[in-house]
Specification:
Elements: E1 6-8, E2 11-12, H1 21-35, H2 38-52, E3 58-60, E4 69-74, H3 84-97, E5 102-107, H4 111-123, E6 126-132, H5 133-138, H6 140-148, E7 152-156, H7 163-176, E8 181-183, H8 194-202, H9 204-217, E9 223-227, H10 232-238, E10 248-254, E11 264-268, E12 271-275, H11 300-308, E13 311-316, H12 318-332, H13 338-347, E14 354-359, H14 367-371
Parallel strand pairs: 4-14, 5-6, 5-8, 6-7, 9-10, 9-14, 10-13
Antiparallel strand pairs: 1-2, 3-4, 11-12
Helix pairs in contact: 2-3, 3-4, 3-8, 4-6, 8-10, 9-10, 12-13
Length: 373
């Protein structure tokens, strides 16, 4: 095992088998070279614009929160229906530069799986997606979409049958096939350099939102809020405001998966962060109505932002999220993902008047779960 390269205070690093170190070194070098290449940036910007639909709009939700000015950063309107495409497009271009034409991915809510299958169809890559069987039940429409896009979806039948186990299986596949395969990780988790790569690819959310709210309001938001599972949409939103001390940054975890609120430092899936674990370091089960938040860990940058006090993290329960889901649908004609509904629920509670919410995805995938309750 190796643990160099911590990039977020005491968090991050590489806690992986030695067999993966060359692949991670190759990935880090490839990423640095890509960032220094104007052609890479130009291609990524063009793909985001012409294929993904960027920039995504900023919508004032006037009826959702009377007496406040709540703006929604509409990542639900990105191609495939969630912010996950920002990361998948960037990593696909990077994988092509590295000569890797087989992609392996994990997914919980199915949105990262759909985004991965989408970019593999676009680039002509082979795609294998690992998904817990419980999540496959909850997110059946996305399973069907992945198959239609040409991906092989492999069910994971052990443990909680959710995202944690799917990630473990994806990593096992990557270890076995590391010479030909790129692991397209879906959030700002995993061994270095993945958290940095995913964070930089999602930072477009915050850059756009900053420009848009200044154009609309002439000032920055008082609060920027996003849901946190692994935390990539939140890292992306926060990136636009990290240097603005006047902007309160709030991440909203599922109450039953509050690795930042109730967790402890430990190692999960290749990096050191905050996670749900017992005194012996054994990882505990997480729970959320939202498959995308049902994860016992979190990206290391979030743990760092919590410890430094730059961001704060709160929990929202299933019923709070369901109420916000229905409220946005009934007052604005927008059906949000259950993940984003956790952030919407807390936005209603803030004392501040000007609030920016990352609407990370749309809720088509969640209708069966919501309507069954």
């Amino acid at each position: 095992m190796s643990a160099p390269g911590r990039t977020f205070g005491e968090y991050g690093g590489r806690y992986v088998p030695e067999t993966l170190i060359p692949a991670l070194d190759e990935l880090e070098l490839g990423w640095r070279e890509a960032l220094a290449d104007p052609a890479f940036r130009d291609e990524l910007e063009a793909l985001g614009r012409d294929y993904g639909g960027r920039p995504t709009p900023l919508t004032l939700a006037e009826r959702f929160a009377p007496g406040k000015r709540v703006y929604l950063k509409r990542e639900d309107l990105l191609h495939t229906g969630a912010h996950k495409l920002n990361n998948a497009l960037g990593q696909a271009v990077l994988a092509r530069r590295l000569g890797k034409r087989r992609i392996v991915a994990e997914t919980g809510a199915g949105q990262h799986g759909v985004a991965s299958a989408t970019v593999c169809a676009r680039f002509g890559f082979d795609c294998v997606v690992y998904m817990g069987s419980e999540d496959m039940r909850r997110q059946a429409p996305n399973v069907e979409r992945m198959g239609l896009l040409g991906a092989e979806v492999r069910p994971v039948e052990f443990g909680t049958k959710t995202l944690k186990e799917a990630t473990s299986e994806a990593i096992r596949d990557w270890i076995t096939n590391v010479e030909t395969t790129h692991y397209l990780i879906g959030s700002c988790v995993g061994p270095a350099p993945y958290p940095k790569i995913v964070g930089e690819l999602q930072a477009v959310i915050g850059r756009e939102a900053r420009e848009q709210i200044l154009a609309s309001e002439g000032r920055l938001p008082e609060v920027a809020v996003a849901c946190v599972g692994g935390g990539s949409n939140a890292i992306g939103l926060f990136a636009g405001f990290l240097d603005d001390s006047s902007v309160r940054l709030v991440g909203v975890e599922a109450a039953g998966a509050a690795s930042l609120g109730t967790g402890r430092a430990g190692v999960l899936h290749g990096s050191r962060s905050s996670l749900l674990a017992d005194e012996d370091g054994q990882v505990l089960d997480a729970h959320s109505i939202s498959a995308g938040l049902d994860y016992p860990g979190v990206g290391p940058e979030h743990a760092f932002l919590r410890d430094t006090g730059r961001a704060e993290y709160v929990g929202a329960g299933d019923e709070e999220a369901l109420a916000a889901f229905r409220r946005l649908a009934e007052t604005e004609g927008i059906i949000p993902a259950l993940e984003a509904s956790h952030a919407l629920a807390k936005a209603l509670e803030f004392d501040e008047e000007l609030i920016l919410v990352c609407l990370s995805g749309r809720g088509d995938k969640d209708l069966a779960e919501v309507l069954s309750r």
